Amino acid sequence: MARAAAAATLPDTIAPAPDAVADEVVLLPELWVPEASQWLSSSAGRVALDGYSWMQAVHWVAGSGLYEPRRHRSHGPRSFGPTTVRVAQELAELFPCRPGIEYLVRRTGLSERSVEYHLGMLREAGLLAYVVRGTRIRGEKAQASEFARMVPLEFDVALGIRTVQRDDAAPEYTRAMTGIAEARRELMAKLAKKASRKVRKPRSKTSSKAPAKAVRKGAEQGVVTPVSGEVRCTPMQVGSSASSSAGTTSFPPESKLASGEAKSPTPKKSKAKAGGQKLNRVGRRYQLARELTQELDWLHGCSVPRIAWVARSVADAGWTVTDVRGWLHLRGETGRVHRGSGLLAVLLAGAETILDTPAKRADAIEQWRGAQEAARRHRIQQVRARTERFEGNWDAPTSHRVQREVEAAFAQVRETANGGRRQDQDHSSDDQAAGLEPSEQELAGLRASAEGELMRGETTLITSMDQDMAVRIYGERLVRRALQIERASRSSLMTYGHR
């Protein structure tokens, strides 16, 4: 396997080889495995027999400084740190080592991109090698990659580990460890101690008494806790299997608590914090902007910071979202909006100077609420009148021309039910019907109106009447087009409508 030509000085934690001179500086090659050599068949390392021995190699790479990710690329993590060790701990517990990205994201709390970065760092350091590379084919379920946990050749050289190939026909990565240099046993013991501990994610909530410098240092280096002997410190724990290292928790007697001589161990929340934090000027702007984007339909999807900047003058004047609704009612709203933030800037121009007192804003709110109630009652009356007038599943036509024809038909039915017309009025009725025949100018207007509705996908004007009469009024072309749209509207492959 090709290695980089650069070399690094042996760190202080790594002792020199047994056959090296005491004053001689031992150099080790830089840890870097190119992408073409990140497969098991081309790896120069050996397969780790268990996760524990593999974690020793992981901790050695983390402390040696021989692997620098940023030397070969300009993005991703800057060093092989505690986060990479946490990802390695999850891999050490898997057999076979076939982790999915979603599994590691769920276990470590990292993002998908971060998990991919740290897996790549483990491969570049020679600690992982592809056995099977995962696939992502559209339309099929993604397959996770399978890795072999590897011990780099540099680890064996640095610790003086002796290996042997028991089967000459087997690949090089199957060689087994047979011994270690005497001078390296102390270092191996330190690595074994680190491998038996777990690097956990730093807690997000830290004590306010802890120094800020110590908190930052703990967040950067990670928190290391032992695997065994984990203690749960809670006063309500039952049993004697474990005890808190901070001592036992004692409570005052009930008599002192009742008399008020001792304070309750449960801290009380201050009244200032119970009411919520008081917002400053910028906070009030953002609060009003967020409420406006939720209340006004034509502001849905707008950027809250942009709306906060547009409404900054009224927010600084102490306006609420109800005050803004009242002012917009006085100013007049539009039903078709192209850019919500721009329209709001125009409508709110000079609002704080016109409604400059709470009384004026309250009056505007009352007018807005009165208009809302009037509109609600009007809608109720419309629905009630339509229900009383047309009972059943039949929907009234939307065209005024067709509505007049329907009114005439209902009037004729009612007149027929009351006894019908006299025979001597038949001639006059025919004359009246001939007088109601539309002119060419009226027919042209009807056809233009019908053609406009057909462009919007509406066919009620033509399909609501008899086909022969529709052909006589609108012509065969419009009738045929209306029937095509009517048939297509029942298909699941097409959708007609208007915006």
Q: Biggest sheet: strands, sense, closure?
A: 3 strands, antiparallel
Strand order of the largest sheet: 3-5-4
Overall number of domains: 3
Q: Please compute the radius of gyration using only Cα atoms.
A: 41 Å
**Parts with pLDDT < 50 across at least 5 consecutive residues:** 1-25, 212-250, 256-265, 269-275
Q: What's the helical proportion of residues? A: 40-55%
Explain how this protein is built.
The protein is mainly alpha-helical. It is built from 22 helices and nine strands. It has helices at residues 51-64, 82-92, 101-108, 112-124, 153-159, 185-195, 212-221, 254-259, 271-274, 281-295, 304-310, 312-316, 321-331, 340-347, 351-354, 358-389, 400-417, 426-435, 440-455, 460-463, 467-474, 476-489, and strands at residues 7-9, 27-29, 46-47, 128-132, 146-151, 161-164, 176-180, 197-200, 223-226. A three-stranded antiparallel β-sheet has the order 3-5-4. Strands 1-2 form a two-stranded antiparallel ribbon. The protein is elongated. It starts with 6 loop residues before the first strand and ends in a 10-residue tail after the last helix. The model is unreliable at 1-25, 212-250, 256-265 and 269-275 (pLDDT under 50).
